[in-house]
Design goal:
The chain is mainly alpha-helical. It has 8 helices and 2 strands; from the N terminus they run αααααββααα. The longest helix is centred in the first third of the chain and has 24 residues.
Length: 167
């Protein structure tokens, strides 16, 4: 059945960018999640929090949520679990005593220093079937899509397109 025969709108998911990116991301994340869970007892959300804090120590939970585009509640739960496990430390910000900042503990860095090379090896294997020019093109296009999405979000064109029946 098609939209023509049912009288309903048609959405060709196989050619709908958000769907394709989501499915690919979910499959890749699930593969990595098995490794993180089996070896280190952490899930994807915990690893993403650890990865961001390994690269940018001293962020608040809200800043971690912004950098990862993850739900604040999910980040808060991951922070709580990682803190309970002794993998994160929380301190008050020097300039703003109402704001707490997060850092990896020694145990957190021990895990981070093992997971980061595994993640990079997985990426190398995943991208190994591509030519360098294809990889450069892929990352260039992802960067451009990110810019375009941020611009559309900030100037309201996404909502306007959805309201007009475009998106």
């Amino acid at each position: 059945m098609t939209a023509r025969t049912t009288g309903h709108a048609e959405l060709d998911l196989e050619h709908f960018l958000p769907y394709r990116l989501s499915v690919l991301s979910n499959r890749i994340s699930a593969t990595l999640a098995r490794i993180y869970s089996e070896r280190f007892g952490i899930g994807i959300t915990e690893w993403r929090v650890m990865a961001v804090l390994g690269r940018y120590p001293g962020l608040s939970a809200n800043e971690v949520a912004q950098r990862t585009a993850m739900d604040k509640v999910a980040v808060s739960r991951a922070v709580a679990r990682l803190t309970e496990m002794g993998r994160l430390g929380r301190e008050m910000h020097d300039d703003d005593r109402r704001r707490s900042v997060l850092t990896l503990s020694e145990e957190g860095y021990r895990i981070y220093d093992q997971v980061a090379p595994l993640a990079l090896a997985f990426e190398r294997k995943l991208l190994g079937g591509m030519q360098p020019a294809e990889r450069d093109l892929l990352f260039g296009l992802l960067g451009r899509l990110d810019e375009l999405e941020l611009r559309a979000e900030s100037d309201g064109t996404i909502e306007a397109g959805v309201d007009a029946g475009i998106g």
